[in-house]
Amino acid sequence: MSSPLRENLETFADKDVSWVRCMRCEHVLCRATDDWKESCVRRLLPPTEAGPLMKDLVGLFALEQLCCPSCGVLLNSNLVEDPNDAG
Amino acid sequence: MTSPTAKDVDPVTFEILSHRLHEITREMGATLERVGGTVNTTQLHDYMASLYMANGDMLSVGESMIRHAACAGFAVRRIIERFEKAGGIYPGDIFLLNDPYIAAIHQSDIYMVSPIHHRGQLMAWSATFVHVMDIGAMSPGGNSPGATEICHEGIRIPGLKLVERGELRQDVFDTLTCMTRQPVLVGLDLKCELAANNVAKARMEEMFEQYGPELITAVSSDMIRYSESVLKNRLREIPDGTWRDTGVIQANETWKVCVELRKQADHLVFDFTGSDPQARTGINLPYHATFGGCFESVLTCLGYDLPKNHGAFGPIEVIAPEGTVVNVQYPGPVSMNTTSGLKTVSYLSSSVLAQMLAGSETWKDEVTALTLGFRVARHAGVNQYGRYYVSTLLELSGSGASSHGDGIDSGGYLSCHDVEWLELNFPLMYLFRRHIRDGAGAGRFAGGVGAESALMLHDAPEGKIRGVAFGVAGLRNSGQGIFGGYPGAPSVMTLMEGTRVGALRNAGKCPVDLESLGGEARLLPYCEFEVKQDDVLYLRLASGGGYGDPLDREPGLVLEGFMNDTISEPTVREIYGVIMDEKTHEVDQVATEECRTRLRRARLEASK
Asked: pTM for the complete prediction?
């Protein structure tokens, strides 16, 4: 028995324990009670990776990507403060 | 003989009556547009028209801003409280209110509420607002970046009778319009509200006469019960939980807004505890506006097909600590809040609702990425006919993608003004207005594309005009993507000073790329500015966020975007991993699959 968590992620029960897994490759990320984001591959990229018009954000923000560690499907993208911004 | 109830009505009559109520609000909206005097009403749809029960409960909302319909319900209640005690509420009365600490959102949005009687008995209320073109604030147009308290932001009216027993109080009308920079046009805007309320009154009286007041009241009550019942049933289908998000309002300073959504059974609590203290800039929201923003998000996500009425209030509770940006106290300023604080509250409440819906098998396909961008300017000065004017410059943003389709290009609840109309009336000329290339957030479904435009001064007797920049400023203002989708490009408003635009025009050229113009460019935060000869004002509105992994997008749709010039070849290849034949521009399926496999692998290798 599984139920959707969000695009490409679902929870499923195995005996008495619920887990989060990738719907694409069925890789199990973590227990349902844990934060699945901690189990992802995390990349910090220049904001222009999201498109050339993001150039004004360079140095201020970074594009954070969270991917399935098995198949590489993108699970989350977010603009975050650029950790390298000295200002 | 007993009074009829909704149960005595056959389903067909029930449907007819409920739709007739909705059509009345639509006719009110059409009246606002046709009688109105300024672009906000006649072209931009910056208005609201709705109906209420005798006690102020919302009965029917027109196809306009739902958040304002919620606030106008508060306005009806405040008018009842105030005038029941003194002044009286009589057939033919129309009341005016714009006090943000009572029910309005900011002073420029003038609410008019009108009792609807049948044979002397109060049966219902109608309400409208329009955003009048000036309100006597320190900046022309009302949105005042320099205001640090509400007293800088124009006239504030807690409730007065503008029409008494059918007679316009001309002394009151003249007093109000004379406190603005545009008395004639503001007068027309006020009169369009009077006209719309008169339309509501006439149509409702016809209904009461035809069907009898008991039946109309019974059907109205049942419509409200129906909406509440369906909404609560839908909520019970969704797993309980808690979801959070944090956003910022960025201008010359930055303010944080936090929300936590707690859902249990059929009850939703939006808790804004942790949001920043109220600002000395007009981005603050009164409590009812914060409630209205959440109410609108709930109806948009879960009740878009329901009769929009008070029934949707039932499941919603909003916690907003006093003295914060989401529950401003006197004398905090508010004049720019609809395009800053309210945008942020709508964005965040929609965000936590999207997280909630994503966990529901039934509702996961309703999830939509969001749009935060909305930059706007007022402009004022002497026009080519030698008359002083105030007006609005607006372009449209792209909306977020959803789980079943791309976002809408240059869309939203507002419209933008006509280019020819603007050039005919004001000393400005467009160099271009078009959709942005490479602005939309990439994803399995892409965000909608925002618009961009550039304008120059033209035939301005004083050689300059004054501008006021506001809206969702700052660079982190695009629509964030959802579930892997990329963010859209943010809004930008830039003043390019001392360009070559005049020389290029004199040489018979029509510059359509900013690079060729030269000059000094500066981003405009919340501020007043001047547009002079050889300056160019550039506006770019944010595009919507994408949904899902861009490498999952159907290659044919990527190609379509390329052919429509909304995405460039590098974006096709590097973000979407689609390889086109150089000559035919057809998708090379094999090369595309290889490219996408390589890009997915690179995501994993980069982390090692």
From this structure: 0.92
